[in-house]
């Protein structure tokens, strides 16, 4: 008789309930099995396989070169390490912009082939029809407003969004439209704190901030940023909870020294 205890997996209903009860939502990105196993064990609520892997894993300057095959490959790896958290996958550039039908087909692949429970896509009112199409097929959608990296050339760079009154009004209107279209949550990136607070109060679905202040229902960071593993740039909104780049360099230099001096492997690492 098996004595294994079934592990409860978070769902979108759990995430919505957290807003209702006032419990903050903690979300981080992950891109491989090893990291997803660790942060899942640390009781993270949501793991996002972000197209930010284009920057921190694949070395691109933007997220635009990331493909469906890239995202499916990494989502499959992450899914193997997740037992408790809600697993969300980013839809990459041009995987949902062509038509609602194409958006649905590509969203379905993340659940059917890669093991995700939901997908995330960027954009406002222009994506409402696609969100309706995807959610009508039973696929949960996380929306994303503010600084949307796939729109980087249209935005003119990585800049705070919604500072002017007309832009703030547009973002509020978009947020309501995305909720009405069926999104179960909304990421707000690089948005003034006051505007993010107002949007959070207006919506019944949770908001998850990244550079949007403390009043959002949750927060998300890129795992490589918060662990100090990405050194090309550090946005203002990032808090480094570790400095693993320095620790890794120190460990590698120690290894190199010991190999070259023939002090590794020692007797305890060798077989008789």
Describe the structure.
With 272 residues, the chain is α/β, with parallel strands linked by helices. The protein folds into 2 domains: 12-241, Alpha-Beta Barrel (TIM Barrel); 244-272, no CATH class. Helices cover 40% and strands 13% of the residues. It contains 11 helices and 8 strands. The chain has helices at residues 12-21, 33-41, 53-56, 68-79, 100-112, 128-136, 152-155, 165-181, 193-202, 223-226, 244-260; strands spanning 25-29, 46-49, 86-90, 118-120, 141-146, 185-189, 207-210, 218-221. It has an 8-stranded parallel beta barrel with strand order 1-2-3-4-5-6-7-8, surrounded by 7 helices. The protein is globular, with a radius of gyration of 20 Å. It starts with 11 loop residues before the first helix and ends in a 12-residue tail after the last helix. The relative contact order is 0.12.
SSE blueprint and pairings:
Elements: H1 12-21, E1 25-29, H2 33-41, E2 46-49, H3 53-56, H4 68-79, E3 86-90, H5 100-112, E4 118-120, H6 128-136, E5 141-146, H7 152-155, H8 165-181, E6 185-189, H9 193-202, E7 207-210, E8 218-221, H10 223-226, H11 244-260
From the spread of the alpha carbons, the general shape counts as globular
**The CATH H-level homologous superfamily of the largest domain:** Phosphoenolpyruvate-binding domains
Q: In terms of structural class, how would the helical and strand content be classed?
A: alpha/beta
Main sheet makeup = 8 strands, parallel, barrel
């Amino acid at each position: 008789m098996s004595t294994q205890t079934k592990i409860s997996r978070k769902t979108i209903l759990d995430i919505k309930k957290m807003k209702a009860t006032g419990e903050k939502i903690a979300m981080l990105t992950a891109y491989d099995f090893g990291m997803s196993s660790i942060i899942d064990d640390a009781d993270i609520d949501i793991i996002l396989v972000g197209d930010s892997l284009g920057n921190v894993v694949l070395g691109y300057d933007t997220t635009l070169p990331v493909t469906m095959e890239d995202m499916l490959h990494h989502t499959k790896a992450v899914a193997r390490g997740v037992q408790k958290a809600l697993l969300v996958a980013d839809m990459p550039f041009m995987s949902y912009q062509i038509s609602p039908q194409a958006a649905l087909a590509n969203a379905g692949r993340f659940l059917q082939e890669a093991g995700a429970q939901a997908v995330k896509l960027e954009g406002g009112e222009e994506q409402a029809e696609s969100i309706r199409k995807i959610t009508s097929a039973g696929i949960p959608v996380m929306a994303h407003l503010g600084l949307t990296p796939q729109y980087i050339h249209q935005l003119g760079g990585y800049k705070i969004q919604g500072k002017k009154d007309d832009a703030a009004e547009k973002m509020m209107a978009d947020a309501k439209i995305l909720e009405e279209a069926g999104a179960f949550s909304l990421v707000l990136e690089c948005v003034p704190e006051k505007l993010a607070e107002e949007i959070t109060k207006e919506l019944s679905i949770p908001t998850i901030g990244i550079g949007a202040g403390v009043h959002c229902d949750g927060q998300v960071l890129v795992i490589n940023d918060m662990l100090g593993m990405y050194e090309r740039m550090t946005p203002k909104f990032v808090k480094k909870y570790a400095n693993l780049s320095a620790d890794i360099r120190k460990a590698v230099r120690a290894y190199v020294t010991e190999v070259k001096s023939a002090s590794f492997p020692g007797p305890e690492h060798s077989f008789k």
